[in-house]
Amino acid sequence: MKSRSAPGYFPPKVKTQALVAAGRHCCLCHKYCGTKIECHHIVPVEEGGPNTRANCIPLCFNCHAEVQSYNEKHPKGNRFRPEELKAHRDNWYKQVRSGFQEDVRPIYEADRKLFADFLRILPSNGVAVYQLRHEPFGSTFRWEAGDALREFLNEREGPEYEFLDTELEQLRVDLRKCILELIDAIATNTFIARHSTAGDPILQFDRELGYKDPREYERRRSEVIDAADRAYQAYVTFIRQCRKQLES
Ligand SMILES: [Zn+2]
User: Fold this and answer.
1) In angstroms, what is the span from residue 21 Cα to ligand 1's centroid?
2) C-alpha 63 – ligand 1 centre gap (Å)
3) Ligand 1 centroid to 30 CA: how many Å?
4) Which pLDDT band holds residue 27 (cuts at 50, 70, 90)?
5) CA of 242 to the centre of ligand 1 (A)
6) Quick one: DSSP state of residue 25?
7) CA of 35 relative to ligand 1 center, distance in Å
8) 42 forms bridges with which residues in the sheet?
9) pLDDT digits over 191-235, tens only?
10) Alpha-carbon span 57 to 88, nearest angstrom
11) CB 167, CB 241: distance < 8 Å
């Protein structure tokens, strides 16, 4: 009699084929698993699922537990249906076959140039970024960041200043939005008291309001401080991602 694997277990040959096809990565979360990988029956054995390669999907422990944890009696979230699991698996096998090429994003020379230009306008040791990060925005403050921020906003506006890489472009748009919000918060909550000898405006919160309504005064100051903080965070995220993507 021909030897057969026990019911409910994939034969070694099927497992080997599946693990090679997946590159020992989990077909759902795509992390590399090494030995910590399991072959899951897409259609459960109890429901007549066969021990074939077509019914097998390699999963990490976490995803395997997740896929099995769905309780029909207490439905929470959306369960993984067999067709969906098959589609995830086939997509992943395809990526492994193509040498992960679909995962690697191209690096555009134009994006490199744009990033260099951008760093020239807003270097992290420049006055604008320094002010975003360190300006305590006391009752009066000298606003030196204006020129650099305006150059970034106004002179780098238009399709030729968009990143070709969609993720970087999204981060650039986020940064613009944060800077616009900061400029708006400053315009709404402060006024120009005078100009410094260097020509930068000296801005001031409404001191009288500080005496009359200290809470409202603080609220206005916080609006500016928070907006500056968000702009700085958006700046850091943007620079880090550009470097990761463009300087590698
Ligand atoms: Zn996983």
Assistant:
1) 15
2) 4
3) 6
4) very high
5) 28
6) B
7) 13
8) none
9) 999 998 988 899 999 989 989 999 999 999 999 999 999 999 999
10) 9
11) yes
Q: How far is the CA of 91 from the centre of ligand 1 (A)?
A: 14
Q: Tell me the C-alpha distance between 39 and 33, whole Å.
A: 12
Alpha carbon distance 5, 20 (integer Å): 20
CA of 106 to the centre of ligand 1 (A): 26
Find the helix or strand (DSSP H, E) in which 192 lies. strand 191-195
Position of tokens 């409404």? Answer: 206
What percent of the chain shows pLDDT beyond 90?
A: 69
The answer, as to whether pTM is greater than 0.90, is no
| Cβ neighbours of 99 (radius 10 Å) | 10
Å from CA of 244 to ligand 1 middle: 25
Is residue 58 within 8 Å of 18, Cβ to Cβ? yes
Q: Provide the pLDDT for residue 74.
A: 65
Nearest to 180 by CA among 222, 143, 231, 221: 231
Q: Please tell me the distance between residue 66's alpha carbon and the centre of ligand 1 in angstroms.
A: 9
Spacing, Cα 27 to ligand 1 middle (Å) = 7
Q: Is the pLDDT of residue 80 over 50?
A: yes
Per-residue burial over 132-153, b if 16 or more Cβ lie within 10 Å, else e, is beebebeeebebbbbebbeebe
- Cα 38 to middle of ligand 1, angstroms: 10
